[in-house]
């Protein structure tokens, strides 16, 4: 999508909003919200600060748009995971999908949402709240899927579904932190295999 945005000297500047947003996502992903400066963003996006404000709003608004793009492009596997035939297959699809997303050769390592939710400054309060809300929505969908598995007899009757969901998210978040700290694909694959060995069976 091409747009004309007034540049600093009043001369129209034409740039691709989608490409600029993808560039912003890369910066936020690699540096985190608090670690990203406006200078980092304008340089990566190839636009002036006035153009950024005109097209996206402030840094916070830009991050929310980048997070939307991240979820649409990088977390599509989570939607496919919920359609798997068994609860164990759901969990495995989540974890293996996370490995593919976190270990991609063309993207920063780790998970943007995990990086962002650990931000602690006052500026990042709304960012953290947004990420937590998005994660809560995803957890609700996963809980509903596991509850269905329990009703179907796919999970034992004694299983605490909320606890099981929390366990899976703890594994996913831990994998993201490890990926961002230099873990290899083989390291993460071992985490997945061990987690699946601990998965409750009938």
TrEMBL record:
Transmembrane segments: none annotated. Residues 37-56 bind DNA. Residues 14-74 form the HTH tetR-type domain. Keywords: DNA-binding, Transcription, Transcription regulation. Pfam families: TetR_N. GO terms for molecular function: DNA binding. InterPro entries: DNA-bd_HTH_TetR-type_CS, Homeodomain-like_sf, HTH_TetR, Tet_transcr_reg_TetR-rel_C_sf. It comes from the Bacteria. PROSITE patterns: HTH_TETR_1, HTH_TETR_2. The keyword Magnesium does not apply. The keyword Metal-binding does not apply. PANTHER family: HTH-TYPE TRANSCRIPTIONAL REGULATOR YJDC, TRANSCRIPTIONAL REGULATORY PROTEIN. This is TetR family transcriptional regulator. It comes from Sphingomonas endophytica.
């Amino acid at each position: 999508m091409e747009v004309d945005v007034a540049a600093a000297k009043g001369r129209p500047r034409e740039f691709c909003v989608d490409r600029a947003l993808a560039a912003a996502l890369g910066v936020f992903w690699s540096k985190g919200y608090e670690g990203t400066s406006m200078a980092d963003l304008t340089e990566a996006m190839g636009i002036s600060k006035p153009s950024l404000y005109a097209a996206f709003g402030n840094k916070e608004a830009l991050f929310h748009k980048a997070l939307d793009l991240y979820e649409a492009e990088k977390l599509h596997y989570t939607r496919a995971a919920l359609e798997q035939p068994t609860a164990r297959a759901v969990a495995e699809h989540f974890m293996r999908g996370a490995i593919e997303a976190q270990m991609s050769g063309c993207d920063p390592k780790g998970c943007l949402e995990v990086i962002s939710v650990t931000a602690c400054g006052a500026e990042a309060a709304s960012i953290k709240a947004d990420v937590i809300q998005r994660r809560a929505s995803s957890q609700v969908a996963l809980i509903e899927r596991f509850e269905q598995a329990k009703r179907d007899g796919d999970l034992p009757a004694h299983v605490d579904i909320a606890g099981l969901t929390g366990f899976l998210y703890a594994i996913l978040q831990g994998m993201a932190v490890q990926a961002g700290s230099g873990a290899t694909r083989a390291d993460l694959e071992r985490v997945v295999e061990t987690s699946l060995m601990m998965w409750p069976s009938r």
